[in-house]
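Slide 14.
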Amino acid sequence: MAQFFKSKTSTSKALPKNLTLLVDSLSHFADGVASYQGKQVYIEAALPGEQVVVDIVESKKLHWRAKLKKIDKPSQHRAKPFCTFYGRCGGCQTQHLSVDLQHDYKQQAVLSMVQKATSAKPESIVEPIISDSLHYRRRARLACIYDKQQHRLKLGFRAASSKKIIEVSECLILVEPFSGLLQPLSQLLNQLSVVSHLGHVELIQGQATNVVLLRLMQAPSANDIEILSTFAKSHQLSIGWQDNQQNLNPITKDFSSSASYQLSDQIDVEFTLNNFIQVNDTINQKMVAQAISWLQLNTDDKVLDLFCGVGNFALPMAKLAGSVHGVEGVESMVLQARKNSQRLGLKNLTFSAGDLSDLNTLVDMKGVTKVVVDPARAGAFEIISRLVKYKPSKILYIACNPSSLAQDAKPLVKAGYKIEKMGTLDMFTHTNQIETMALFSL
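Slide 15: predicted structure.
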């Protein structure tokens, strides 16, 4: 959505201090919400039912933002953060909420936004899909910066809403091969001759490999390769590096530019290390299984999978439907999806690459019965607005942004679709990111 103006922010020193407020709800960003002088006040890290003391730090036309100073009456749902870096590292925002409350607030946030946008209520609200709340993230990018004054690399995660890097010695959100790796990895990288040429570090877990991928603006020396290879052997890692042209180069002998993950006993999905994959393996498997269950696929169905990636939904759906066609804007992922289809012998599955807003030139829409839409955070409003003209019987929407889901639900409801089912997927526990699955039926 185009933004034509910005509301003016007051930085006056006269902003109220030491206000005692009662928090009555949570925003969809997990901020506590209270009322003061007819305005909503958003308070980071405050919970419903809590009486808090705050300083107003930002004033806008319709709301204020406040800094939490003191909690006079804590909520029974308040949890003790398990991470020593919580509050400084920007990776997690909701460790102070009990996990049950995290699930509940996310479900309520999505429901409220969709109902407000469409005036429609889902016929069925299903239980959230959940996984273990720790050691769930199989892929992460570590930020780094070389401090020229101290002559050392700082490795960690960005602070919230900042470019500042918080050095992190461990991360309990990462899968266990990576969670305790950060401190020894930082010590290792500081031994390299190319340490000042390091852009970022990516950690990627495949089905049978744990990969460390270094983004380097200069090739590592022979001594660097020896140091990295020794480290890789002792930690059971595969290490490679990416150059300025996005080429993937080996450091350890076993390094491969591709890996795989398992969806079921019959289906494993290969991806290159540059491809997008869902970061939570358990949630991804449950998500795909629920999608197939909700769509009730049969051999009479012609399925369209938009934003198909490397075939996360299309591959298993082709086992049940008459035909499946996946469309993706990133050509490299389409090439990988085709390789997956050929390897699995799925002759009723095809893929194409191109501008997804131009469905007519990419897909034969005649006879399409069911559609999967899995867009990025911006959503798919233009695509949905065109898609409803073809009247597929069911449209399954997977959203990583509740605002986009609410926006895109409008043309669906207006075109006569009902919200048959809706529920959240806790892909990112301890964060304010909300993933949702919604089934629209004509």
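Speaker note: DSSP finds ten helices and 23 strands in the chain.
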